[in-house]
Amino acid sequence: MTALVLDNLSHRFGKRSALSEVGFSVEPGMFCVLLGPNGAGKTTLISLVTGLYAARHGDIRVLGHRLRTEPLKALAQLGVVFQASTLDLDLSVSENLLYFGSLHGLTRREAKERSAAELERLGIAERIDEKVRDLSGGLRRRVEIARALIHRPRVLIVDEATIGLDVPTRRALLQHVRVLCRDQGVSVLWATHMLDEVEPGDRLVVLHQGRVCWQGQAQDLSLTASDLSEAFVRLTGQAA
């Protein structure tokens, strides 16, 4: 079953069109990059998929569940890392994760076991009792990824999560999420404006001015120009 389907999705803010007839899908275990310059509509799209905004035009399905008619079943399958951090800075890493686990109906024991496992995979198990306020930006992002995975979702949505991070930290986060796809079959929609986060084998959806202007394998787009950067400029008129 297809993990995520967006069908003819449109959205407006007053008279301004933010998205227009957007459609694409993400298959199980797929790492799909939603690439677009700032202002392309990526965050609006993420807000619709995660239920922050109500989609009035078009359809969103998560593992066959329509977000419009089965919101609880659809959203239960999602793990989300938003662009703006949503951790409680005054709580410890453990307290943040345990609270989130309780929202998903996990017992305290289940949440503790899963928290420890996810933090271990991310290489930060020793920071579990530290307050989030004392962590670097890169460590906070790792905690957010651990939190997003604690209820074992089948689809992970990540919106510009690497902004402001140094190159080694960005690469480490990307590598971790790609391993989730490969080893656990998690489907990922990774929204970014940075071309160096795209690999040739990725599924790629290029969003510009609220419309999908290209989609396919990333390596196929780069065949139309000397490199991916030039192809992106041709499509959008902007450098990433």
Description:
Helix 3 (93-103) crosses helix 4. This protein has a six-stranded mixed beta sheet, with helices on both faces. The chain has a four-stranded antiparallel beta sheet with strand order 2-1-4-5. The protein is of the alpha/beta class and 240 residues long. The mean pLDDT is 92. It is globular. Strand 4 and strand 5 form a beta hairpin. It has helices at residues 42-49, 71-75, 93-103, 108-121, 137-149, 167-184, 218-222, 228-236; strands at residues 4-13, 16-26, 31-35, 57-62, 65-66, 78-81, 155-159, 187-192, 203-208, 211-217.
Task: Tell me the number of strands.
Answer: 10
Q: What is the name of the CATH architecture of the largest domain?
A: 3-Layer(aba) Sandwich
Order of neighbouring strands in the sheet with most strands: 6-7-8-3-9-10
**The CATH H-level homologous superfamily of the largest domain:** P-loop containing nucleotide triphosphate hydrolases
* Head-to-tail CA distance between termini: 33 Å
Order of helices and strands: EEEHEEHEHHHEHEEEHH
Assign the CATH topology of the largest domain.
Rossmann fold
How many domains in all? 2
Q: How would you sum up the global shape?
A: globular
In the CATH scheme, the class of the largest domain would be Alpha Beta
Structural class, from secondary structure content? Answer: alpha/beta
Helix share bin: 25-40%
Mean pLDDT: 92
- Rg, nearest Å: 18 Å
- Share of β-strand residues: 25-35%
Low-confidence runs: none
Main sheet attributes: strand count, strand direction, barrel closure? 6 strands, mixed
How many DSSP H or I helices?
Answer: 8
